Amino acid sequence: MTQQAPRAEAWHARAASEVLAVLNTDGAGLSASEAELRLQRYGPNLLPVAQVRPAWLRFLDQFNNLLVLVLLAAGVLTLLLGHVLDAAVIIGVTIVNALIGFVQEGRAEAALAAIGKMLTPTARVLRGGQQLAVDAARLVPGDIVLLAEGDKVPADLRLFEVKALRVEEAALTGEAEPVEKSVAPVDSEAVPGDRLCMAFSGTLVVHGQGRGVVVATGAASEIGQISAMLAAVERIDTPLLTRMASFSRQLTLAIGVLAVVVFALGVWGAGYAWSEMFMVAVGIAVAAIPEGLPAIVTITLAIGVQRMAKRNAIVRRLPAVETLGSVSVICTDKTGTLTRNEMTVLRVATGEQVFELDGTGYGPEGGIHVGGRRIEPRDYAVLGELALAGLLCNDAQVRQGVDGWQLQGDPTEGALCTLALKLGLEHAEEAARAPRHDVIPFAAEHRYMATLHEAAIYLKGAPEAVLARCDRQRGDSGDIPLDQAYWLAQETALASEGLRVLALAQRVPDAEQAELSLDALGGHFVLLGLVGIIDPPREEVRASLARCHGAGIRVKMITGDHAITARAIASQLGIGGDAGRTLTGSQIEAMSDADLRAVVHEVDVFARASPAHKLRLVEALQAGGAVVAMTGDGVNDAPALKRASVGVAMGQKGTEVAREAAGMVLTDDNFASIGHAVEEGRTVYENIRKAILYILPTNGGEVGGIVLAMLLGWQMPITPVQILWVNMFTEITLSISLAFLPAAAACMQRPPRDPAESLISGFLLWRLLLVSLLMAGASLLVFQLELTTGASIAQARTAAVNMIVVGEAAYLLNCGDLEHCVLGSLLRNRPAWLAIAVVMSLQLAFTYLPTLQLLFGTAALPVASWGYILLLGLTLLLLVEGEKGLRMWLERRT
Ligand code: ATP
């Protein structure tokens, strides 16, 4: 039995120490066994699951559809006219169709829900004095949680330590402006927005750091209390789906009008009996309305989302699937996305020497050389000082684990830990000798980090940020004035090798200095030297970039690194060409929006860029009509991610805030996964187009047959219930297979689709007309052939229906590729053949099973009839292929 955490407490009104005491915990956190016990007692930290619509309601919802209602009305009228069997079939088929829709919709919803669960949040806690990352669902009251910029608060916390902690509480209070947190108790009557010493589950840390004790989890948390509000299920909805739905509605209306006109013409113009014409009109409505279309679009989207998830791209917002297919520019970070984010110091430049280091990865193996000669690091005091600065001004740790050397924290800092280890400096020992009193954490905006210790302030960061605060440099025999030109030359030399360059400096703190602040860090630092860090490109990225270029997608690198480093890495990967221009953040700042717009398309490398520049770049690109995918990981990337056509967040190194803002999350942080997602996005769109181009002409064929027969004064070649059979069973089964078609090689060989391009093109209308005529012609031909050879009307109709279905099967194979010939790859279209096998078994039952013969008015066919039906099917297949060939030929000629 789980019980709720003690909720009635006004934690915000009590002193932090008191709260810790009540919850029986201290600053070191709970023990593992106590945490386990409390988990049993209070239950997991999960919000109550959203109330899904009950099954019966979802089933009834299937009838909330104009066509189904028309059909039911027709069924009732048919009954009134005395056609009991027909009425039973119409109503029966309607119900079976609703069942199929119900099951498919359920599967699509379940698939999407499963993907939503793939992004489970973790929380950093202290347990037994150790810092651990645990699944947020396993938090319990009494746990000590560490918060940092970019985190989503995992449970309700009473804060007891804050450093410039600002939290955005819009999820809870609707207030978008971040709130500055503190630790002092507040009035017990304060509303959640005023409880400054609390951090609430589901809110976002946009700045600073903090620690708090968990006071409420799951349903007991503030957000849990109001989660009934959030319980509404997110409907599957995208711009394309909306357009499809409205298109379907318009079409239904048009077809309704057509049916009425045909009815009137038949009764008053051609003198048919009105009861007969009524059935014809119903037949036309049933035949023409593309009832399967919305379902197919939904299923295609759901399958696309699943396929992307398998390829490491988790879609958070469904419209992103469609947009991905039309992306024309990808703006990507460098570090970790294009490169491996495995950093190793390769060079160290001090005032007097340049050291070269061996080794890769985080293991402290490999020698140190100067000018090709191996040296003993102990003989170089400045090198040792620089390594110590790099070790203490650092939040990462490298440790030897079972699988070799493991990094915890930022890779750039990890590289500096390894450098220190190579010089025999141990983190625990040095940190104990010179404890840290304060820190300015690294941020992409100011590009440095500083720490305060008893005897020194250490500063490390981008060379221009550090050098600006230095007036001297350390030499082998004491400090001398800073030689700007020397350092600039060293920096350029390191960066041209594609190395990431950091400068390290130190100074003596002011007397009794207890704090560091951004505004008052001051100058007068002594520069110790520069380090050059290698971060090798990811192997698979080169090929992926080439594919993107082949697909007409421009890839732009936006990095915080130095322009020369960025340029070197870009040319290693093949971004931007050798002559390409590079823009830096400060150049972007100096430009007006109009100037930026004028050059942004031509520049592929942006260096020393910060998140604000990313936002301006997206806007400039979009103003030029580009559809932009943009990657990001930090809190400040959120505006650019939201603004981009598709925001792409990093699953591993990204913050929770960036993930919330993004439309898609990469589980492996790898650029290649964006390429795959674009490919799947294009495939989804193509498959939807195929479904439309498949369904509409087959419907057209049936209507064409009926209208032609009427105009010729013939008997109806197919009855309304038979049309129902064809549309509701065979056509839907066949068309679903289109959603499963894999990506075609050609889809990444053409330029991106214009997002404004209409789905219903002239091409579609032409194809619609052609296939409609071919199908109508073939079925009428078969119908007449049967009648002239003395077959019964039932047998002739059975043959006509089978002709339509075989024609549909043949055209399904054509639709494997809309523009190109499929004859060479016919057998490879496995989904189509599977669907054809199912449908042909259904047709055999339809033709030969006595019960179905009775229900649908069919009769057994002789083998000879099958012979020419199949032959005509093959002819249809070849004619459509011929049309494709002709089009291609004509296109080449123009
Ligand atoms: P991107 O991922 O967008 O390609 P980036 O993440 O590599 O870029 P930043 O992390 O913003 O870029 O780094 C910019 C510069 O700041 C680096 O070139 C380096 O000089 C410096 N820098 C990076 N990390 C740290 C750190 N932890 N401490 C101090 N300085 C750093």
TrEMBL record:
Residues 10-83 form the Cation-transporting P-type ATPase N-terminal domain. It comes from the Bacteria. The chain crosses the membrane at residues 63-81, 87-103, 251-271, 277-303, 691-712, 724-747, 759-782, 794-812, 832-849, 855-880. InterPro entries: ATPase_P-typ_cation-transptr_C (IPR006068), ATPase_P-typ_cation-transptr_N (IPR004014), ATPase_P-typ_cyto_dom_N (IPR023299), ATPase_P-typ_P_site (IPR018303), ATPase_P-typ_TM_dom_sf (IPR023298), ATPase_P-typ_transduc_dom_A_sf (IPR008250), ATPase_P-type_domA (IPR059000), Cation_transp_ATPase_P-type (IPR050510). The keyword Transmembrane helix applies. It is a multi-pass membrane protein. Keywords: ATP-binding, Membrane, Nucleotide-binding, Translocase, Transmembrane, Transmembrane helix. Pfam families: Cation_ATPase, Cation_ATPase_C, Cation_ATPase_N, E1-E2_ATPase. Belongs to the cation transport ATPase (P-type) (TC 3.A.3) family. Type IIA subfamily. This is HAD-IC family P-type ATPase.
